[in-house]
Specification:
Layout: H1 6-12, E1 15-21, E2 31-35, H2 42-47, H3 51-60, E3 67-68, H4 75-82, H5 85-98, H6 101-106, H7 115-121, H8 125-134, H9 138-145, H10 155-161, H11 165-178, H12 181-186, H13 195-201, H14 205-218, H15 221-228, H16 238-244, H17 259-270, H18 287-293, H19 297-306, H20 311-344
Parallel strand pairs: 2-3
Antiparallel strand pairs: 1-2
Helix pairs in contact: 3-5, 4-5, 4-7, 5-8, 7-8, 7-10, 8-11, 9-11, 10-11, 10-13, 11-14, 13-14, 13-16, 14-17, 16-18, 17-19, 18-20
């Protein structure tokens, strides 16, 4: 049995090549390479926080940082995901020496995710900062922040989707520095939701406030109005999301939140100018209709107070509120009738 021998170390280095160019200058022979034995690879070592084995790989072959597994993960993406700052630093320092930093930073796994998006997803804030610093060249930094994966998600989307305000703030600060805030804010993922809608659906009041403040600071009045009232999935605005992602709403794709949480978010949104409270979704309903349908009196009270001095919109609000209550009553009666018949049978 071979243990800790030169031969064992040599066997660990057996690889086959996958012809994906990795050089920053496009001329050198760096390629991503896939390991034959995934449980003995530098990627496996990174996933287990095994710094000793990673260092051994790098000492033997610095280009081992370019190895990928069957899901096209690198040691960097694994370390970024699990939050091992020391391993991330080691790999990035090696990448700089090997002149393949850019390709490593923008490398995608099978789902199109980069090391940055994986760090943002797990709220590994220090690693997010480290990766952004490593890609400090403006062109590379923009490429990292605007990179969309298979779900058309940016790193900012992954951060807010998990409710990670800290990581989101770091990414938005970098977007501000690079002057690409509008591109980030108006980007929609595969299900047609922008950053504000995702903040609402994550139930994160502080994140919503951060997004709104960033938008208000960096967009002109027209752009801000378009952003805050933008329609997404099924024609829903951020306000529709407020009404539909509250406890009691019939939703299966996202966790729901208390009415008090959504009241706080609603108040944050309504304090900004240009909000259209009576905008209709694809089903022809306003946010007030859904708040009534799901019996959310606190939300309805906030909507009504906001519209108290706008007679025309207040009439629309009152009509939609009545329709919402009525439709819910009809649906409940029908549901009770069906349930009764099933019991009888």
């Amino acid at each position: 049995m071979i243990k800790n021998s030169t031969l064992a170390s040599t066997l660990l280095m057996l690889i086959y090549s996958v012809n994906i160019q990795c050089s920053d200058d496009g001329k050198s022979s760096h390629i991503f390479q896939r390991t034959i034995a995934p449980y003995d690879s530098i990627i496996w070592a990174a996933s287990k926080r095994d710094m000793h084995t990673i260092q051994r790989w790098i000492d033997h072959n610095p280009e081992s940082i370019l190895h990928i597994d069957k899901k096209k993960e690198t040691a960097l993406s694994w370390a970024s995901s699990i939050g091992d700052e020391a391993i991330v630093d080691l790999i990035l320092n090696t990448a700089e020496q090997q002149k393949c930093t850019r390709k490593l930073l923008v490398h995608e796994n099978v789902n199109g995710c980069t090391a940055l998006s994986r760090a943002a997803y797990n709220n590994n804030v220090n690693i997010v900062k480290t990766l952004l610093h490593a890609g400090r060249h403006v062109r590379i930094a923009k490429e990292m922040l605007l990179h969309a994966d298979a779900y058309n998600e940016l790193a900012t989307d992954w951060a807010i989707g998990q409710g990670h305000t800290e990581a989101l703030t770091v990414l938005l600060d970098q977007a501000e520095y690079l002057k690409i805030v509008p591109e980030i804010l108006f980007h929609k993922n595969k299900v047609e939701t922008n950053l504000l809608m995702q903040g609402v659906m994550a139930g994160k009041c502080d994140a919503v406030e951060q997004i709104l403040l960033t938008a208000y600071t960096h967009l002109d009045d027209k752009q801000f109005g378009e952003f805050i009232n933008e329609k997404g999935y099924k024609g829903r605005t951020a306000l529709h999301c407020v009404s539909r992602y509250t406890q009691g709403a019939v939703q299966h794709e996202k966790e729901l939140y208390s009415e008090d949480t959504m009241v706080s978010i609603l108040k944050k949104i309504l304090k900004y100018p240009g909000v259209i409270v009576t905008r209709r979704d694809d089903s022809g309903h306003t946010p007030a209709y859904w708040a009534a349908y799901y019996n959310q009196p606190k939300l309805l009270e906030v909507f009504e107070q906001y519209l108290v001095h706008n007679e025309q919109q207040l009439r629309i609000f009152n009509r939609e509120r009545s329709e919402g209550f009525k439709d819910r009553q009809i649906d409940d009666e029908e549901l009770n009738h069906v349930s009764k018949k099933r019991k009888e049978s």
